């Protein structure tokens, strides 16, 4: 997974380049959590262009991450 951060725009972009299934969700979640905590971005983008498969665990992880980002702004 590639991670890019734009300091001026405070934009954090995650380019996920692997399948997102129940086996990989925790690894991806830890990485996303760590990078968000590290940079404290204003905006977060998830790029799924190169993801060939995502199961319900991956969709659940994405929804939780979005909710977490929203809660952090409050």
Protein model, in words:
With 74 residues, this protein is an alpha+beta fold. It has a single domain, classed as 2-Layer Sandwich (Transcription Regulator spoIIAA), CATH 3.30.750. It is 45% helix and 20% strand. It is built from 2 helices and 3 strands. Strands 1-2-3 form a 3-stranded mixed beta sheet, with helices on one face. Strand 2, helix 1 and strand 3 form a beta-alpha-beta unit. Helix 1 packs parallel to helix 2. The protein is globular, with a radius of gyration of 12 Å. The N and C termini lie far apart (28 Å).
User: How many domains make up the 3D coordinates?
Assistant: 1
Q: Please name the CATH topology.
A: Transcription Regulator spoIIAA
Q: Approximately what portion of the residues adopt beta-strand conformation?
A: 15-25%
| Number of DSSP helical runs | 2
What's the CATH C level? Alpha Beta
Evaluate the radius of gyration: 12 Å
Mean of all residue-level pLDDT scores: 88
Short description:
This protein is α+β, with helices and mostly antiparallel strands and 74 residues long.
What are its keywords?
Transcription Regulator spoIIAA; alpha+beta; 74 residues; three-stranded mixed sheet
Topology:
Blueprint: E1 2-6, E2 11-15, H1 25-39, E3 43-47, H2 56-73
Parallel strand pairs: 2-3
Antiparallel strand pairs: 1-2
Helix pairs in contact: 1-2
């Amino acid at each position: 997974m590639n991670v890019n951060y734009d300091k001026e725009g405070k934009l954090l972009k995650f380019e996920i380049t692997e399948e997102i299934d129940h086996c990989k969700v925790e690894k991806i979640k830890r990485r996303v959590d760590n990078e968000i905590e590290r940079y404290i971005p204003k905006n977060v983008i998830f790029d799924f262009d190169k993801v060939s498969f995502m199961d319900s665990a991956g969709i659940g992880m994405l929804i939780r991450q979005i909710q977490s980002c929203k809660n952090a702004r409050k």
